Amino acid sequence: MRFAKWPKPTAYVETARKRSAFAAKRRREREKLPLFADMIAAGQHSVDEEMARRAEWRPDQQQRLRDERASVWRRARARLFAFPETTRRTIRRIWRDCPYPADPYSFADLLHQIRVGRVNPDRPPWKFHARVKARTTPDPQRFADAFKRVGQRMVEPAPGLPAIEARQYCGNLGNGILFLDAVPSMLDEGDVTIRVRGVCTNADITLIGRLASEAERRPVKVVRVDVPQTREGGFSHRLLILACSATKRHDPGWMPAWERYDGPLWQTWRAVDPDRRLARVCFLSARYGFRAGDSPIEDYDARLTSDLAERLIAGGMTTRWPRPPSPGKPDTYGSHPGCEIASLAYHGTRPFTNVALVGGGLYIKVMRAFLEGFREMRCLTPDAEVTEINAGIGVMRQRLRSWLEAGRGR
Fold first, then answer.
1. C-alpha R_g of the chain
2. Where are the domains of the chain?
3. Residue 326: other Cβ atoms inside 10 A
4. Which long-range contacts (CB under 8 A, 24 or more apart) does 271-276 make?
């Protein structure tokens, strides 16, 4: 059993610093109410008396804490032996490598979570994560069962015509998330046109048309809006991944990364693309990992080493950065690359077709490894063009400027 021993009771150690601290406390109490200083002083005890009280009180307090922890351990072990033998062996095994502190309170809480069914000892949550399942409606009977209204937006009913307000719906028939725009006709009694965006089959289109016609009680025209998601198909979405900068603004508090970093490459990007329209910008940091350029960060000083680069690569798309300050802390700090790239690529609906990797050798190595994960998440098109910019700082600034300028007019 993993067990952290509690220190044995020790005698109270008296120091000059403790004596002066208590004397200062007595003085502050008198100065707080100067009109009653004499009365307060009469009720105070001396420094020697306080040290004697602490010397007597400390061993008793430590012994009470030891007794309390021992009592919790005994109750927890009794709960452990209430489980079947096979379950006990499993609990002992997962307790040896779990991230919880090796104290009786954590062990008792783990047993309680197992007993009430919140933790499966065969699939502990620090090793296995519940598979995320999309909420689908494979065989809906009504339009409202399959699609929910999520708002409205302005769309053009036809090229050149003024934009009108269209209802927007969202749903999933089993092949992927779908967004529907119900565009009313320009005529009072005209048909409604539903524009479908997302992955769907011809059978899904037919089903949407039938359900929508029944809901609208009039003919409905369903049109699939296929957005080409390859460079050859005319789709363009550019991503710029910059290495973090040792030169930073030292303003206190949190501020967006693209304002915090002030190195030469970041200055070039701000000069060429002040409106941030030529590419989506993100960065790779030795402290924060892969993040979007507008992510708030604090001032810090960290360097990307070979060991840290390997850890970033091994962590892949699902490891959060920065890591927790200690192994006993929950893994809820920071953000992971998969979350960041999904947001940048609109969850795969607008994958990137052109990527620029800008930074030193170690940064390029990590960025190159991350691209494979981006492709698996469909946030990067199979035929995406990848440009690596790694040279002297002057050459890198020139090539970065050229890559950004190539995006104008797209």
1. 32
2. 16-115, 143-224, 238-405
3. 8
4. 272/400, 272/401, 272/404, 272/405, 273/404
Concatenated DSSP letters for 342-395?
Answer: HHHTTTTTS-EEEEEEES-HHHHHHHHHHHHHHHHTTSEEEEEEEEEE-S-HHH
Q: How far apart are CA 120 and CA 118, in angstroms?
A: 7
**Is 283 in contact with 261 (CB distance < 8 Å)?**
yes
User: Residue 232 above 60 pLDDT?
Assistant: no
How many CB atoms are closer than 10 A to CB 83? 16
pTM of the full predicted structure? 0.49
The predicted structure's pLDDT at residue 383: 84
Place of tokens 């990848």: 386
Residue with tokens 């008792």: 108
Closest CA to 337 of 256, 386, 282, 385: 282
Q: Which of 240, 237, 340, 342 is nearest to 292 (CA)?
A: 340
Q: Give tens-digit pLDDT for 87-142.
A: 999 999 999 888 888 889 999 999 999 999 888 998 888 887 656 677 888 889 99
- Looking up tokens 């200690």 gives 326
Over residues 51-79, the mean pLDDT reads 92
Which of 362, 312, 363 minimizes the C-alpha distance to 334? 312
